[in-house]
Amino acid sequence: MAEQQTRTLSGTERAAVFLRSIGEAEAAEVLKHMAPKEVQRVGQAMATLTNVSRDEVKNVLDTFVTTVEAQTGLGIGSQDYVRNMLVNALGEDKAGSVLDRILSGGNTSGLEQLKWMDARGIYEVIKLEHPQIIAIVCSFLESDQAAQVLSLFPDRDQSNILLRIATLDGVQPNALTELNSILERQFSGASRGQKTSVGGLKAAADILNFVETSIEASIMEQIKTAEPDLGQNIEDLMFVFENLIDVDDRGFQTLMREIQTDELMLALKGCDNDLKEKFFSNMSQRAAEMMRDDLEASGPVRISDVEAAQKSILATARALSDKGDIMLGGGAGDDFL
Fold first, then answer.
1. Closest Cα partner for 283 from 320, 260, 252, 242?
2. End-to-end CA distance of the chain
3. So what CATH class is 241-336?
4. Model pTM?
5. pLDDT band at 335, cuts 50/70/90?
6. What's the average model confidence in pLDDT over 262-284?
7. CATH class of 104-237
8. Nearby residues of 292 by Cβ (< 8 Å), 6 or more positions away
9. Contact, 216 vs 246, CB < 8 A?
10. Measuring CA to CA, which residue among 216, 282, 217, 284 is closest to residue 244?
């Protein structure tokens, strides 16, 4: 019981506790307003979170009530208010893209629908389209989802698509309208105003961060051969597992609360001693000793499993960075803050 009272729930777990507390109908209404990835994470937490104490539920509900009471509806019509709200919630990069779509009136209903499909389904929809269309679609998807879609294309096409993503400089409203019509005939497309920000170097780097390491290396080699400067710019923006050593201790501890022990064990099999010590130094002495012993006693593992575990931890780190919970440094620089 003492463990239940003192454990620290992650943000996702707190959301799960709250939704389970308000009833099925109300929770369903809340979930309708969440993105596919958010629904998946919160739904999984709702299904797996057990032994939630009365004190934990009370703490979550009290925090929610306090937060709501502190809010006001005044000034919601202001673009500055909306911008600040989105930046605080999503981070500067994602907020800019979302704000463009909200304030410019761009209709991306067809593209948003694709976010609910699996990678194979998206690939089947766009595989015969022009590479520029494919690049725009991938730019609208979440980075990990876009990486899965990109991996399904033939090797010869992957670098071409990523080059187009990296060099995208916004999409005109009439192009979005036509794209929505191509993707889903049942969705109508109409938009006015400024062009919508999609693609760019950071979008390309984010997608590559989620691609399997062997594919990533092949794509980067082809890009650097065709466009050396562009390839270097993309590589500079990529945040790799070794860059985690530059995260401060507070951020490191926040990250470690969000990852599974088995996943961390796998990831540490493939990293250098300095990064291992960084992880160990942010554990309790007992936990660090147990982890060291387990690593020494464990047998060989597949490189692909190690890389998958590292990419999963990186995905968690980027999600925390987007929410402002941690700051990522290293090769990513200020563009990832």
1. 252
2. 38
3. mainly alpha
4. 0.41
5. very low
6. 88
7. mainly alpha
8. 280
9. no
10. 282
